[in-house]
């Protein structure tokens, strides 16, 4: 009787081990596929980011706003179009003095603007020219 119980237990343990290894192989294959999908997605995203072109708008500051501790500049270009550029903690401001209304600026941004009126974007570099 003890022999039969031992053999049944051994068969059960071997079955569990084989099922575990089969499950583990499927899990590894699934993880590898998920990793490949994420890696492909990241490659596509970085390629799309590289396609973005930096653009520059030259104009005059018509308004400076502060909301929740964040600054925004309303800039009017020489054709009379207005743009709103938000200043983030990553924005580089090149000036010898504080930004003022009426000051001429060159704003470099990533080329992406909202479709709102006026269009809005995030300034990467604000080069303030002397008044």
Q: Mean of the pLDDT scores?
A: 77
Helix content: 25-40%
Biggest pleated sheet: 5 strands, mixed, barrel
Tally of individual helices: 1
| The CATH architecture of the largest domain | Beta Barrel
Report the sheet-strand fraction. Answer: 25-35%
Task: Classify the secondary structure makeup into a structural class.
Answer: alpha/beta
SSE topology:
Blueprint: H1 2-51, E1 55-67, E2 70-77, E3 82-86, E4 92-94, E5 104-109, E6 120-128
Parallel strand pairs: 3-6, 4-6
Antiparallel strand pairs: 1-2, 1-5, 2-3, 5-6
Signal peptide: 1-22
Protein name: DUF3221 domain-containing protein
Keywords: Signal
Can you offer a commentary on this structure?
The protein folds into two domains: 1-47; 55-127, Nucleic acid-binding proteins (OB fold (Dihydrolipoamide Acetyltransferase, E2P), Beta Barrel). The protein has 131 residues and is α/β, with parallel strands linked by helices. It is built from one helix and six strands; from the N terminus they run αββββββ.
Task: Provide keyphrases for this structure.
6 strands, alpha/beta, OB fold (Dihydrolipoamide Acetyltransferase, E2P), 131 residues, 2 domains
């Amino acid at each position: 009787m003890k022999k039969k119980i031992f053999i049944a237990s051994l068969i059960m343990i071997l079955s569990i081990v084989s099922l575990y290894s089969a499950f583990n192989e499927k899990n590894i294959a699934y993880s590898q596929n998920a990793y490949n999908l994420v890696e492909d997605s990241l490659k596509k995203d970085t390629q799309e980011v590289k396609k973005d072109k930096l653009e520059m708008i030259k104009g005059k500051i018509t308004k400076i706003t502060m909301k929740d501790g964040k600054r925004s500049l309303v800039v009017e270009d020489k054709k009379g179009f207005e743009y709103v550029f938000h200043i983030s903690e990553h924005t580089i401001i090149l000036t010898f003095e504080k930004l003022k209304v009426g000051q001429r600026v060159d704003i470099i941004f990533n080329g992406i603007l909202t479709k709102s009126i006026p269009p809005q974007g995030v300034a990467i570099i604000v080069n303030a020219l002397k008044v």
